[in-house]
């Protein structure tokens, strides 16, 4: 999950305001230097990570799953950091949120929507690298619990591709939908956000559902769906959809590679395990 820098703008569906005087360029134009983000203190970062790890261990019943989730989260967010620094939004920082997850935040907004799309997809794609050590440990030790850890990492990245605020999918597909009409973007995000919240409630993930509900409400109030700067071109929109689909296929592929051995070597068995963990088929 990635976050924009400190500046906040009106959404594309808001009624345009008539400014009394031109706003200061240093705080409103895309790519402008904003007040530096202080970042998370080391002590609070360690406490937040410990709380999140304990929470995951308690609910999963497995320290391997908890370690995999924390490790996968950090690698995922570092992918955002690398992309933010690459496209002039850095130096970016990672924040761990107790009981919920994490986010990466840059010092400034992206200079184009295309850069924003690439930053949003960098987390899920780079985050898949976190699964490699778990596959290696499975091959070396032969314990299938390590495969479950790899599947958890794949699931973290796949869930983040859901086009629901504030997940990465909303930032990757939002500008594409806005090219059709801003209200198409808004409607799609509200519908998907509501579905994800209902999914969280139905499978008992009340904290996750509440967090997404608050995030969706915040996005509706602020209208911040994508970075400022040059809008996507038609070609970039096609690339955005293509990269999104590739990222989703890669996440699903890594997840199935980990789950098929756990599901007696069959695809149906792997999908049954995935459905049980995601709360489907109960």
Strands across the major sheet, in which order?
1-3-2
Name the overall outline. globular
Rg, Cα atoms, Å: 19 Å
The largest sheet is: 3 strands, mixed
Number of helices: 11
Strand content: under 5%
The assigned structural class equals: mainly alpha
Estimate percent helicity. 55-70%
In N-to-C order, the SSE pattern is EHHHEEHHHHHHHH
Distance between the termini: 28 Å
Would you identify the regions where 5 or more consecutive residues have pLDDT less than 50?
Answer: 7-34
Number of strands: 3
Mean pLDDT, rounded to whole units?
A: 80
Compact summary:
The chain has 282 residues and is mainly α. Helix content is 63%, strand content 4%.
Observed structural traits:
282 residues; mainly alpha; 3-stranded mixed beta sheet; 3 strands; 4% strand
List the helices and strands and how they pair.
Elements: E1 2-3, H1 25-28, H2 42-60, H3 63-86, E2 93-97, E3 101-105, H4 113-127, H5 132-141, H6 145-159, H7 168-180, H8 182-202, H9 206-222, H10 234-262, H11 267-278
Parallel strand pairs: 1-3
Antiparallel strand pairs: 2-3
Helix pairs in contact: 2-3, 3-4, 3-6, 4-6, 4-7, 4-10, 5-6, 6-10, 7-8, 7-10, 8-9, 10-11
């Amino acid at each position: 999950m990635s976050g924009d820098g400190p500046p906040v703008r009106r959404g594309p569906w808001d009624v345009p305001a008539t400014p009394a005087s031109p706003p200061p360029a240093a705080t409103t134009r895309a790519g402008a230097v904003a007040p530096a983000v202080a970042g998370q203190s080391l002590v609070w970062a360690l406490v937040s990570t410990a709380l999140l790890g304990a929470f995951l261990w308690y609910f999963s019943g497995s320290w391997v799953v908890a370690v995999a989730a924390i490790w996968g989260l950090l690698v995922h967010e570092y992918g955002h950091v690398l992309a933010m620094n690459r496209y002039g939004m850095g130096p970016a920082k990672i924040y761990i949120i107790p009981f919920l997850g994490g986010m990466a935040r840059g010092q400034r907004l992206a200079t184009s929507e295309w850069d924003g799309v690439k930053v949003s997809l960098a987390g899920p794609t780079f985050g898949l690298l976190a699964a490699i050590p778990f596959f290696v440990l499975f091959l070396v030790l032969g314990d299938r619990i390590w495969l479950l850890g790899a599947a958890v990492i794949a699931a973290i990245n796949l869930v983040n591709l859901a086009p629901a605020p504030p997940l990465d999918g909303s930032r990757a597909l939002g500008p594409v939908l806005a090219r059709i009409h801003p209200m198409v973007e808004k409607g799609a995000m509200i519908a998907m956000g509501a579905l994800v919240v209902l999914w969280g409630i139905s499978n008992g993930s009340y904290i996750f559902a509440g967090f997404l509900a608050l995030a969706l409400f915040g996005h509706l109030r602020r209208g911040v769906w994508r970075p400022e700067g040059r809008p996507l071109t038609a070609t970039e929109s096609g690339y955005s959809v293509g990269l999104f689909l590739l990222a989703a296929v890669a996440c699903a592929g890594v997840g199935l590679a980990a789950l098929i051995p756990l599901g007696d070597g069959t695809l149906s068995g792997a999908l049954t395990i995935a459905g049980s963990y995601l709360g489907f088929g109960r």
